[in-house]
Amino acid sequence: MDVILKSKLIGLILALSIIFFGLDSSYSILLFLIVMLSIGIPHGSVDHIIAFINPDARRFNSKLIFYIIYLSLIIINIVLWIISPFLGLLIFLLISCYHFGETQVLGYNSTDNKLLNFVIGANILLSLFLNNIIELQGILYILPEFSNLDLSNFDGAFFLLISVAVLMLSVTNFNIKRKVPLYAEITILYMVFYHTDLLTSFTLYFGFCHSLPMLMLEFEEFKTDNFIKFYLKTLPFTILSLVFGFLLYHFNNDLLTSDNLILFVFIIISSLTLPHVFIMKDFVKDK
Amino acid sequence: MLNFIFDAASVAPGDFTGFTFFIGSVSMLAATVWFLMQHGQVDKKFKDSMLVAALITGIAAVHYFYMREQWVLTGESPTELRYIDWILTVPLMVVEFALLTGVGMRKLFWASVVMLVAGYFGESGVTGMLDAQIWGLISGGAYFYMAYEVGCLTIFGGPTGAVGTALNSASGKIPSAGRMLQWYVLVGWAIYPLGYLMGTDAGMWYEGMSNIALDMNVVYNVGDAINKIGFGMAVWSAARS
Questions:
Q1: What predicted TM-score, i.e. pTM, was given to this entire model?
Q2: A160 min Cα distance to partner chain B (Å)
Q3: Which end of chain A is more exposed for a tag (fewer CB within 10 A), N or C?
Q4: Which domain holds residue B41?
């Protein structure tokens, strides 16, 4: 588990550097792209190998069946977003809560408690959204009930307070082996969420608290000393994901909200995340 | 976003309040480095405590840099940033008791949630319900419950909760470190209700508190530094044994 904590430490140093040295929010998209391309997408680009080399992983009879199921889930997710963006978003959030929470508790507790995984992930997303809620209202204009809410009476401290209170109550009500370090790490995340914009917050969390630790864990699973060799194995599907994203963007229609890049990126991420979650669920078991 | 390293504004000559913001930020940073260095030196069972101590001062250092900047540039009290700092660090300070004794985390967390939420509601008036004195009463009640639970009243021979009992009966240097922590909660933390009364006195029975010739920024800055660094030092003194 050492590798997970070291990866998270890199993220912490980067997050603090951004807070101290200052990064204008206009650069957040660039930071997002760099982190997503180098860590975010690659961590899911070896699912096709992980699914077969990990003895605890879900067993597929053949690679063909694996790809059919994997790609079907991606397509179903996109169709869902087109039919009902609200439902697409809801399912993405529910799945992300579980998946992010599962990774977050690694090193602090076993991942057997599914409810704990979900609650921890929900806490993180809740804080990410609450601490950037005004920005989120602008992005989620497809949900007028939310985007038209008048929040002018509330300041940043209110939303941070809600996040921290919910986290404290969540942590105390679960049986967690290393409760305090888990709480402490999430506290740092909340500080980062408060001080950076939504995309930067998401980038730092997704890149360094989620993707990098998982990438390093996958590297360990490959049982090779050559990281470059391992990383090269992630490239084909990383490139394929990019092509898929560009194609989807090129052939988009209004239902895919072409005028809202961040929402479009959310749709892409959710499509890639859905099948990845099932592979990772088995991968992190007993870790 | 601020750039503290290259664009940081200087504290003007004679600006004593600004100077305390500066001292707050650098002393918290120094304490963080110190606690992190000590993390490798202490027994395994105290490692989490040292890490939390470093985290408390680290988070405070970040916010004191922000607060100093806001003070120097605008001359306004950085109330929101101060609350952000407290919201993040107070639960961590409470956690130190649970780490030293192994009991009471749930009770102390609940009490600190009530203390912070009620205090914030009272000072901001965001709910539109009840008035500042009622919220203050609820917040103060939670604070006194915590003080009781961690054994502050035993200083005067009074009763204590489970955490205080565990602190006083622990082995090694924990009881003496615990006594220091109890003093911090009883005396050090008392500046926060004082600030609350001064900030919400309009139309209340305690009206006039804000006329007291006391710069609350200075009180908070000095108090924060003593409380947060002192808390960590007390834990470190227990860990050294």
A1: 0.86
A2: 7
A3: N
A4: 16-240
* pLDDT tens digit sequence for B3-17: 555 566 788 788 888
Q: Which residue of B has its CA nearest to A178?
A: B48
CATH of the domain at B155: 1.20.1070.10
Q: How large a percentage of chain B has pLDDT more than 70?
A: 95
Residue of chain B with shortest Cα separation from A173: B106
How many Å lie between the alpha carbon of B3 and the closest alpha carbon of chain A? Answer: 5
Q: Is A72 on the interface with B (CB under 8 A)?
A: no
Q: Is residue B62 part of a domain?
A: yes
Greater pLDDT, A129 or B5: A129
Total domains, chain B: 1
Contact A114, A98 (CB under 8 A): yes
Tell me, yes or no, whether B58 lies in a domain: yes
Please compute the mean of the pLDDT values over residues A241-245 and round it to a whole number.
83
pLDDT at B65 over 80: yes
Please report the pLDDT score of residue B59 as a whole number: 94
Residue A287: which pLDDT band, with cuts at 50, 70 and 90?
low
For the residues B182-195, what does the mean pLDDT come to? 86
Burial of A229 (0-12, 13-18, 19+ CB in 10 A): exposed
